Amino acid sequence: MDVTQPQQKRRNRPIRQVALTGSLMFGACALTMGIASVQAAETAQRSALIRFEIPAQSLDSAVLAYAEQAGVQVFFDSRKLAGLRSEGLKGQFSAEEGLGKLLRGTPVRYQFTGNDRVGLERLSDSGEALELSNTHIESNQDAGWVYQAPRSVSVITREQIDKRPPRHAADMLEQTAGVYTAVNQRDQGLSVNIRGVQDYGRVNMNIDGMRQNFNVNGHQQRNGVMFVDPEFISSIEIEKGTQAGMGGAGVLGGIASFNTVQANEFLGPDKEFGGRLRAGHGIGELGNGTNFNGSGLFAFGNEKGDLLLGMSERHFGDYRAGTQNADNLGTEIRLKSSHRDAWKGWLNDEVGDTGSVTRSNLVKLGVNLPHDQRVQLNYIATDTDSKEAWTYMDPVESAFYYKRTGKSDVTAQNASVDYSYSPDNNLVDLKAKLYYVSTREDRWTAPSESSLSSGNFVPGYDDSYRTDTWGLQLQNTSRFYLSDADKLSFNYGTELFQDSFKPDTERQAARNESALPYVEGMTPKGKRAMASLFGDLKYEHGDWLELDAGLRYDRYRLSGDTGVTAWMYPKGVTEPNLTRVATHMVFDDEREEGRFSPTFGVAVKPGVDWLQLYTRWGRGWRPPSVTEVFMSGRPHGGGAEMVYPNPFLKAEESHNWELGFNIFKESLLREGDRFGAKIAYFDTRIDNFSFLDTNADLPGASALGISMGRSAYQNNLEQTRFRGLEYSLDYDAGGYYAQASYTHMIGKNDFCSNQVYMGGAQRLVNVGTELRPVKVGNRVIMLPVRVSRAEDAPDLDQKVSCGHVMGNATYMPADRGALTVGMRFFDRTLDVGARVRYSEGNGENLNSHGYNFMDQALWPQYTVYDLYASYWMTPQLNLALSLENATDEAYFVAMGDSNNLSLARGRTLSGMLEYKF
């Protein structure tokens, strides 16, 4: 059963979460007691006049357009509407009258079951309703609207996700143009990269609109991760570039919205109970560490309200990586060139300590209030554990073994209350949200490898990292019909959120650790608050011209404290043997700043309705995060490495520009087929880009550039640029289909910064001689002694160094693409297909691996093949099989966390049984 959702409402859909632990009891009471009848309001809404502009087209597409313009949900089975056409609908009609005219001359009847719900049934020749085939959800979240949107946006549907059951949340994004993920195969944390931009809020990663701003510093590949259970995902929407509307505060790369299931996906006309049960497992030896994965979702509701309950559990064990074409991995990974037998053993053995368990729960309670109002409460919790390990050579250098270096348990909780008010008034479409997100990692770290006698030994310890985010969102959309051909809409509102970082540790300082930075850990305490006002005005003339202009004002406040010890010569002192002394620099910083950011776009259809040309331009602004400003400490618990704070870090400013075109054509090669294409060139330029400089000098330095491993965040003195081309193609003829995507990145970046990053360089100056008493034998005599004085060295402060960078921005993401082809049989109940995933790779250091610089380019080229099949044995029961990496390719996921040295999975066969009711 297909559910259409109004397109405008879907784009700004209120995110309905629950904030109260006792919501189950409240929901049961609310559903039992009921809400006052709103029949009068429903009748008034259905009789109100609505302006429709729906051209002649296939009936299922016409129904989607009707749902958008009428603002109602339409439940129907698209397969039963195949081959039917509508003559279209133009003019002002009530919702019910308009639907009747749209369906005129077709064997389809309708029935309204609420103020915003209507069900469709196709009739047989005898006038009886045809029996529905297998039930599924189809809405404007599917691909059709993407290829008609004049901007760079992508949608991953539930159907696409199920064709490759995700072991890691990052698997859901791998086929999306312009999107990368820095995958660590050992944990379930997800970090989204859009067009090369990532980390510290540059990409707004959210679950149902709730920002996921958790951050614990790692290997610099993932500075900001989220935890989301793929079992609860209904769709994923990726908006690329700076954004004028909700969610765009502090964003440079785009918005990644993970939309979870809603109760109405399982309910319908005269259906007050429904749900879904799923159970999956790896099959035999090819299961490859894929253990039980499953979930249960239960929905209850009617026109007065609904309740959705869900639980999920996912188990993974150690897995084997692929072994074919392993020479692509180069000669230096795991000492292949010098210890070939040990390398072969490492390649063919299981990847150690990669097992994990994830458990999630979901509760959503929605109440439909009189006068077209709705309130929904949501609560989503995910708990996942994982381990950290490294490979070591055995004493006889014949084999590698895995040694655990740490383990962690992460709990992520999301709660919100949502309110929407959508009366029959073109000026009011109001949505509000109040949310709270708390993510905590409890971690154990193994003792350091330093000896007890070295003075650098740190015993094993426990620590925790917690990020709490409070958020408030409020927006309204007003629509103005200036004439039959001219429409104006204005979306405006405000967004506020605050992140609080609360680390805690039991770490004991090593004997040699006496200087600042403090030893509490690298992820510091602090708060950052962001407030934003925005407005986005869109003008449409007929169906061929669209203009939009937006303006947002962002303001932030950052607070925290940190410190560092610099060794400096005392000023104003003249001595024969002048020495540096410890100077403790403590920063108790609080700053506040704001900036306006405009956006503009134009789209035209040059004489044909299937082609749309568009261009967009916008500016973005991201102030520095708590971690970038206040981070300090030793990254590995000992040794000479150190990370220094930078209280003078500037905000980043971006200039985004893109040029693209859309193609959306129905009945291209045969009646009823659909073809969509989206191709765009993008160019993102960022001033003051913040990066981790791995060779920074503190105040007091006089010999520069000898501090490799002493790091601090700095603003790039060069402009940082990410540009490229994206291709997305989609063809569906019912019985067969194909989808393709490709991302081509262009150019590379240089990273340069001041060597003495806070200034304060010094040099010793010889100021002559002075007569000083000197003991010679038993006598003390006065002799001339050379004396020195420390002076400021502004010339050294201006010294610039380049290339000392560590992080995901070090290299441009490698080109990547995917192609999926499939066929459907037996009235589309059997779906079989194949997929190829390709990456050009970046293997600059595969055969020259060294540590003259920190980051290594270790992503070899790969081509991976997957097979899948899905069979709806009955309208409710589905069996799905997936064979991933069928040729057992040895590879790293493009842009993955190669420092972890965990190859992607080898050949893996799994099955999933799904029952809908």
Overview of this protein structure:
This protein has 917 residues and is mostly beta strands. The N terminus is likely disordered. Helices cover 8% and strands 49% of the residues.
Instruction: State the shape.
Output: globular
Helical content band: under 10%
Q: How many beta-strand segments?
A: 49
Q: How large, in whole angstroms, is the Cα Rg? A: 30 Å
Distance between the termini: 11 Å
Strand residue percentage: over 45%
CATH superfamily of the domain at 449-813: TonB-dependent receptor, beta-barrel domain
Class derived from helix and strand content: mainly beta
Q: Which fold name corresponds to the CATH topology of the domain at 449-813? A: Maltoporin, Chain A
Mean pLDDT: 85
CATH architecture assignment name of the domain at 449-813: Beta Barrel
Low-confidence stretches: 1-44, 131-141
Enumerate how many helices there are, as a single number. 11
In the CATH hierarchy, what is the class of the domain at 449-813? Mainly Beta
Largest sheet: 22 strands, antiparallel, barrel
List the keywords.
mainly beta, Maltoporin, Chain A, five-stranded mixed beta sheet, 49 strands, globular
Give a concise summary.
The chain is mostly beta strands.
Ordered list of secondary-structure elements with their pairings:
Blueprint: E1 2-4, H1 7-11, H2 23-33, H3 39-47, E2 49-54, E3 57-58, H4 59-70, E4 73-76, H5 78-81, E5 85-86, E6 89-94, H6 95-102, E7 108-114, E8 117-122, H7 143-146, E9 153-157, H8 158-163, E10 179-181, E11 192-194, E12 203-207, E13 210-211, E14 233-240, E15 254-260, E16 273-282, E17 290-302, E18 305-316, E19 319-320, H9 340-348, E20 350-351, E21 356-369, E22 373-393, E23 400-421, E24 430-445, E25 461-481, E26 486-501, E27 504-505, E28 526-541, E29 545-568, E30 574-575, E31 581-604, E32 611-622, H10 626-630, E33 642-644, E34 652-666, E35 674-687, E36 690-693, E37 710-715, E38 720-732, E39 736-746, E40 752-754, E41 762-776, E42 779-792, H11 794-797, E43 800-802, E44 805-806, E45 816-825, E46 830-839, E47 862-872, E48 877-884, E49 908-916
Parallel strand pairs: 4-8, 12-15, 33-37
Antiparallel strand pairs: 1-4, 2-6, 3-5, 7-8, 9-14, 10-11, 12-13, 14-15, 16-17, 16-49, 17-18, 18-21, 19-20, 21-22, 22-23, 23-24, 24-25, 25-26, 25-27, 26-28, 28-29, 29-31, 30-42, 31-32, 32-34, 34-35, 35-38, 36-37, 36-44, 38-39, 39-45, 40-43, 41-42, 45-46, 46-47, 47-48, 48-49
Helix pairs in contact: 4-6
